[in-house]
Amino acid sequence: MPDAEQLLADALAATRGTDVRQTERALDRLVVGDGPAVDAALLARLVRGVGRLWPRGWQPVDLDRIATRRLTARGVRLLRDVLAAQRREQPGPVPPWFADQLAELGARWDGDAGWLNRLAGGDRITGLRDAVDALALVEGLPPIAVLRPPPGGPAAAPRATAPAGGSRMLDRVRALLAKAESTTFAAEAEALTGKAQELMARHSIDAALLDATAERPDQPSGVRLGTDAPYAAAKALLIQEVAAANRCESVWSDDLGFATVLGFPADLAAVELLHTSLLVQATTAMLRGRGERRTDSGRGERRTDSGRGERRTGGGRRTKGYDESFLNAFALRIGERLRAATSAADRAAAEERGDDRLLPVLAARSDAVRERVDQLFPGVTRHRLQVRDAEGWASGTSAADRASLDVGSPGHRAVRRGR
Description:
Blueprint: H1 4-16, H2 20-31, H3 35-53, H4 60-70, H5 73-87, H6 96-105, H7 115-120, H8 124-140, H9 166-182, H10 186-212, E1 221-226, H11 232-245, E2 249-253, E3 258-263, H12 265-298, E4 301-303, E5 309-311, H13 320-353, H14 358-376, E6 381-384, H15 390-403, E7 414-417
Antiparallel strand pairs: 1-3, 2-3, 4-5, 6-7
Helix pairs in contact: 1-2, 1-3, 1-8, 2-8, 3-5, 3-8, 4-5, 5-8, 9-10, 9-12, 10-12, 10-13, 10-14, 11-12, 11-13, 12-13, 12-15, 13-15
């Protein structure tokens, strides 16, 4: 019988193919192989594969996000714990952000002995299948943009700190947005979201001016935000519009299910908070609009030649076109309003401070962000969105009017794609 390494290689090759019977035969041979040797080979290869991802731009939360999309729940749990096993292989301390992500995912390792049976709950066949699928995923991931120095690499240079009180400000923003999500009154949601954007814009200005006088000025960094189905393109557009309003740039990697947002730390925090809240508001409004649409459609009937009463055209149609158009319109209108709010905050800050320093500082930061985008994503293309449902577009625009700030004219934006 082949050794454990060969059995694993055969199972992995079969999993990557399209022959289901061959895959099952390879898995059967793995099941009847030397259990401890197979488990050790699997663990070693998983740990090596995960470790190779960090210099290729991946972070623990990125890996978990795509695993959630492509693996079973058991496979996701298994891979999370393998992250903890791989952590032991890192020489010296890991960056704080890396340790924080592992803690956020609940990654833990209870020892190598019997690890697969332990994680699989005693179902060895299913556990082996999930482990092989996880290994195929890990070894098949492409390189992506490196947003942070990986574990084991050179340490990041010290950065300027955010203005004092920044954490308290973000807590205020979170509270305002939570109220905006929960209220059923459009005017109240508008006021709360507007106040949140005003606070974040002013915080961004304070951070920019402080950083301009720092001995080691900060540099643009990045975060990745998930764009899960359904309507991933519309969600990417919302991220892009919120990013633009907060002096950031966004590039969507549709095949990997995330958008990369590049900007300075205070601005990235604003994008994460506002995007999360607006996605909740948009989804809630979309579902409410869909229900109202069905109610309206059901009020009228037409008669067919057979004499039967039927709901008029539109009442029973699939809602995909409506939902996509709704979310696209919502994103574009929100972007216009948030950009207007940011511009107003910039003008007010310049008048209050009475100097000519602010606008050049902000312009220089925008240039730095665009330069970073060009470095990390030289092959970006643009994807034009299509309006498939006029009613959904109108409803999404109206919902954005209720959710945020001043009215602006509708426009068409392209979502930038890259890896």
